[in-house]
Specification:
Elements (H helix, E strand, L loop, with lengths): L9 E4 L9 H11 L2 H10 L4 E5 L6 H15 L4 E6 L3 H14 L11 H19 L7 E5 L1 H4 L2 H6 L3 E6 L8 H9 L9 E4 L14 E3 L16 H10 L12 H9 L1 E4 L10 E5 L8 H11 L8 E7 L10 H14 L2 H4 L2 E6 L5 H17 L2 E4 L8 H8 L4 E4 L4 H4 L7 E3 L5 H12 L2 H18 L2 H16 L10
Parallel strand pairs: 2-3, 2-4, 4-5, 5-6, 6-7, 9-10, 9-12, 10-11, 12-13, 13-14
Antiparallel strand pairs: 1-3, 8-11
Length: 487
Amino acid sequence: MGRERRMSGVTPVNPTPPGVATAWSTQTAEALRHDPLVNAARTALDGHTVWHVNTTAVGGGIAELLRSAVPWHNRVGLRTRWLVTSGDTDFFTVTKQLHHLFHGSPGTGAPLTGADAEVYARVTTEAARSALTHMSAGDVVVLHDPQVLGMAPLLVDAGLRVAWRSHIGTAAWSDPVAEAWGFLARYLPAPHRYAFSSADYVPPAVDRSLTRVIHPTIDPGSAKCRPLTGTEIEAFTSAIGLTTGSGAALPGTAASYAADRVRVFQDTPLPPDAPTVLQISRWDPLKDMSGVLTGFVEHIADASPDAHLVLAGPDPDDIPDDPENRTVFDAVRAEHRRLPTALRRRVHLVVLGLADDDTEMEANALVVNALQRRATVVCQKSLQEGFGLAVTEAMWKERPVVASAVGGIREQVVPGVHGLLLEEPSDLAAFGSAVTSLLNHRALRDQLTGAARQHCRERFLVDRELRDYARLYTELTGAGPAASPGP
């Protein structure tokens, strides 16, 4: 079969600031405008622009981070723009396999080939050439994740100051991890600086003196994280059909989004007072949605007979850079249909449509916010996880968390202090025991959630990340030439 060959380019994204100003965001913006690190970055940039580049504007953690970070940068005087690259099916198949390998998973099990390297080189080269039509020498560029690292050599040669930020990885070196780094070896020397979500993700080939650790953060003023009243929560969950409440009517765009872009697969609505276990994530094999469903059926349903499970994720058809989503969702849907009637009534699948329209994206975020605040327990039973934004969101909203002790989650949660962690993600009995202990013990839930919110406030809010970026930009503008990339 011939490989698809389609020109790749970049598209500017212009995210709008959150529509609701909170006391926290107003006070924080004022503090950041006078922050020494931010002032130093403004001076160092000397009128140049900061460019953030990734592969999708919606549907993933990086897009979500940038949707808050870019407006915040501009709000405090750091002129910042966002570009999204395009690709073809072959490219996204290669980069999805890279994603698996970086987490230590074999993925398809087939090795990456010379033809795969040609696809990757072609697409990232075309993207870099397109990006350069927007940029000027002396500008700063932050490339996010392996999909766009290949752009670095051309950008550096054109006089850009380039950092690569890797949000994914694993602490355990293995053959799949070595294969991933080997595939990218020719591009790895090009950036002037590196940022990783965890120090554990830094490979031997990267100079640690040029590396910074930047933990991903959340924005308390965003639609996904701003406070919601009980009435608002009920309005959103009933508008999508998950519950049958009589909440207040939603405004026009939110109402049309809930009616037209959200699908709920369930036999009966979620009862108003039912304890609820929730996992929100992509339909990705590494998120283990199927494992959550099996764990609920085998180890939670009998121990907590009133509890219901909600699995929610983006519409697979709206995420072209992640071709496995459809396969995983279809498998979970089939597993749901096979459940005995009594159990099937207690399991609810929610599919959230994505869109490029800012008002629809805000509606999507508000639905997620309502689902999280409606939950009794929030899970992130990932087999691997670069950094769990959903974990941070739940901690901020004072929802008790059960998560896997993998990747960045280990740096987000101190076990028994901020949440409960699973040392072995595939141990469904341990998963069921942890969730059940939280469902059945209000005092334990309260103990964990209070500490978790304070932990979040200190380490995982957007102002801390912005200061980290400001330090990185200052270092980049004074950085010496990068090493020449290999052949």
